[in-house]
TrEMBL record:
GO molecular function: amino acid transmembrane transporter activity
UniProt KW keywords: Membrane, Transmembrane, Transmembrane helix
Protein name, as recorded: Solute carrier family 7 member 14b
Pfam name, any one: AA_permease_C
Organism this protein belongs to: Sphaeramia orbicularis
High-level lineage: Eukaryota, Metazoa, Chordata, Craniata, Vertebrata
């Protein structure tokens, strides 16, 4: 008996812990108007300013991408990883970014008028622990991006000064051994000063920051056009001949793509500004799409000119675009590009630093980070404390770590955050809406019975990982519009495209795959099925690419053959998981923007992102692991106990435990039935703990929403 009680208490402890990790934030607390002061963070008297237009968002996205990506990353990847194949690296990275970008855009529309980007979206939809993990990695992304931008600006000024700045620092300050990959680096005081200066600009206010950003983007655009036109007079096809286009092979191209992904991370800055955008429902999707298309065009065109003007092995790693004109004696062109470099790298630095304090602010407002970080300045309407803390940390990082190591470190956190966003979209599309009465579909889907679908008080239905949302506090659905009719093209997402491609064979394919018809609706059971399949797909994508990269590509003989067979079996299993997901009904809920071809686009994003993550260096994974361990310590020691949801739960528990007798607040005329209180029960009042159950007005159990029944725990 004692051992049974021990197992029971252990199970209850695990259930309560998992409930904490998977609790979601009610969307009503997120979608308040920017002028509403009722849901501000502790210590804040004002909210963020709602001033950003679609053009402002596009400018922020393009600026944060094109600067460092165009002026630094293209040269680094071409010289050390891919050669002229950097063009293909950028295209592959762009495909991965587009796949993640459409998922980001749908997330932004599902939970508009919020700050915090994917952190906030995941908190509302999939749970607290996943939200903290995504937010923590977004902080890493922006922190390293800011430090990389400051370091790139410092390198550009050093190049303009014929490396006299770096020589002076090495002579008077010495070198530091062991940072990055162990090479000698010098303390970059100029990068430290640049990062602190931009921190001050960001803290002065969003309107000033965005106006400054727009001016720099215009300068950057003019210089970009100049580089393309002027570069046409110096290009030579010899730099691509004789195997020089892919000197490092396709492995180098893919490794370069993993690093080039850094150059496309700017679009998620758009998703962090939902609370400051005037019309986030339309601005966020349009701005993300326009930013990605513009950035891809800029990177490919510049990479073509760079590799046709200078042999890949002679490219200058610190300032490639300036030095490519100097190598041909066009000194005037070098200084024009220098102007663009200053503008582009500054706007990229602004784009990296701008969202970081907003993510910190959102996490601190929710209690997952220290709450003093959520203070909003009454003068500038910006999260001033978060700005100062984040800018100072980025400045210290720029002082100590080399630019190449910063870029590699940044990509892994970004890739993981984007992968988790794609996982969340797959989960959300197949979960039942709260407004949908799943009881009426209980007899039609998978042979479910009325009582199986309607049981809304079970543990499985209270957590997304085990099923659908179980209570109103976990709902994200109230933030959108519910569709009325049964539109199969809408609610399958890919139906319209498949109909055009397959014609009359479309319905035959649907029947053979077992796809549901337009009248089917998701239930808690189908939601759990998709959740399990999606999590397995996520884990198996890592196993599949690990087997291919480390077993097939790097193996030989029998080992490589065995790895190939294993990879083929895993690919077949993943295809079966996709078919299982296709067989489940989607939510009919309409949104202003929805990711196309679900579940294929999110699944493709997961596969591409995990492959690029595994192509990064082992040292990058070690750094990333250390960062994640630090985050876990903060969450387990502080966040899980001080989050707003935890404090609210304690308050409700204390309120419930205040009931000492079950009949304190019951109407004397109320007569409980025999099932609740058997006749042979002892007449003595229950001396243990009691809690209150409030039955919903739509519940089949009790129609009167005011009735409260006291039940023992």
């Amino acid at each position: 008996m004692a051992s049974w009680l021990g197992r029971l208490s252990l199970g209850d402890a695990w259930y309560h812990m998992s409930s904490r990790l998977l609790r979601t934030k009610p969307v009503g607390a997120m979608a308040h108007d920017a002028n509403d002061l009722t849901d501000m963070a502790e210590g804040s008297a004002v909210g963020l300013a709602k001033v950003l237009t679609t053009v402002d968002l596009v400018s922020l996205g393009v600026g944060s991408c094109v600067g460092t990506g165009m002026y630094v990353v293209a040269g680094l990847v071409a010289k050390a990883m891919a050669g002229p194949g950097v063009i293909l690296s950028f295209i592959i990275a762009a495909v991965a970014s587009v796949l993640s970008g459409v998922c980001y855009a749908e997330f932004g529309v599902r939970v508009p008028k919020t700050t915090g980007s994917a952190y906030t979206y995941s908190y509302v939809t999939v749970g607290e622990f996943v939200a903290f993990f995504i937010g923590w990695n977004l902080i890493l992304e922006y922190l390293i991006g800011t430090a990389a931008g400051a370091s790139a600006l410092s390198s550009m000024f050093d190049s303009l000064a014929n490396h006299s700045i770096s020589n002076y620092m090495i002579t008077h300050l010495g070198t530091l051994r062991g940072l990055g990959k162990g090479e000698d680096t010098y303390p970059d005081l100029l990068a430290l000063f640049i990062a602190l200066l931009v921190t001050v600009i960001i803290a002065l206010g969003v309107r000033n920051s965005v106006g400054f950003n727009n001016v720099l983007n215009v300068v950057n655009l003019v210089v970009w056009v100049f580089m393309i036109i002027a570069g046409l007079f110096f290009i030579t096809a010899r730099n691509w001949e004789g195997g020089r286009f892919l000197p490092y092979g396709w492995s180098g191209v893919m490794q370069g793509a993993a690093t080039c992904f850094y150059a496309f991370i700017g679009f998620d800055i758009i998703a962090t500004t939902g609370e400051e955008a005037k019309n986030p429902n339309t601005s966020i999707p349009y701005a993300i799409t326009a930013s990605l298309v513009t950035c891809l065009t800029a990177y490919v065109s510049v990479s073509v000119i760079l590799t046709l003007m200078v042999p890949y092995n002679l490219i200058d790693g610190s300032a490639p675009l300036m030095e490519m004109f100097a190598d041909h004696g066009f000194v005037w062109g070098k200084y024009v590009v220098a102007m663009g470099s200053i503008a582009g790298l500054t706007v990229s630095l602004l784009g990296s630093l701008f969202p970081m304090p907003r993510v910190i602010y959102a996490m601190a407002r929710d209690g997952l980070l220290f709450r003093f970080l959520s203070h909003v300045s009454a003068l500038t309407h910006t999260p001033a404390v978060a700005c100062v803390v984040s800018g100072t940390l980025a400045a210290i990082l720029a002082l100590l770590v080399s630019l190449r190591d910063l870029i590699e470190m940044m990509s892994i956190g970004t890739l993981l955050a984007y992968t988790l966003v794609s996982v969340c979209i797959l989960l959300l599309r197949y979960q039942p809406d709260e407004q949908t009465d799943t009881h009426q579909y209980g007899d039609d889907v998978d042979g479910l019975k009325h009582q199986d679908v309607g049981a809304s008080d079970t543990k499985d239905d209270q957590m997304l990982i085990d099923g659908a949302d179980g209570d109103g506090s976990s709902s994200y659905h109230t933030g959108g519009n519910q569709g009325e009719g049964d539109d199969s093209q809408f609610h399958t997402g890919h139906a319209s495209l498949l109909k055009r491609l397959l014609g009359g064979h479309y319905y035959t394919l649907r029947m053979r795959l077992g796809m549901p018809d337009a009248s089917a609706r998701p239930t808690p059971t189908t939601g759990r099925t998709v959740t399990r399949c999606t999590l397995l797909l996520f884990l198996m994508s890592f196993l599949l690419w690990s087997t291919i990269i480390f077993g097939v590509e790097q193996g030989s003989g029998v080992g490589a053959a065995f790895s190939g067979i294993t990879a083929a079996l895993m690919a077949g299993s993943m295809a079966k998981l996709m078919i299982t997901i296709l067989q489940q009904p989607e939510s009919p809920r309409r949104l202003p923007y929805m990711a196309p071809c679900v579940p294929f686009v999110p699944a493709a994003a997961i596969l591409v992102n995990t492959y690029l993550m595994l192509k990064l260096s082992p040292l990058t994974w070690i750094r990333f692991t250390i960062w994640c361990i630090i985050g876990l310590l903060i969450y387990t020691c502080y966040g899980i106990w001080n989050s707003t949801l935890e404090l609210n739960a304690r308050e409700q528990q204390a309120h419930a435990s205040s009931y000492q007798r079950y009949d304190d607040h019951l109407d004397d005329t109320f007569s409980p039935d025999d099932d609740l209180y058997p006749q042979d029960q002892d007449d003595r009042p229950y001396q243990g703990r009691w809690t209150t159950r409030v039955f919903n007005a739509n519940s089949d159990e009790i129609k009167d929403p005011q009735v409260r029944i006291m039940t023992p725990i």
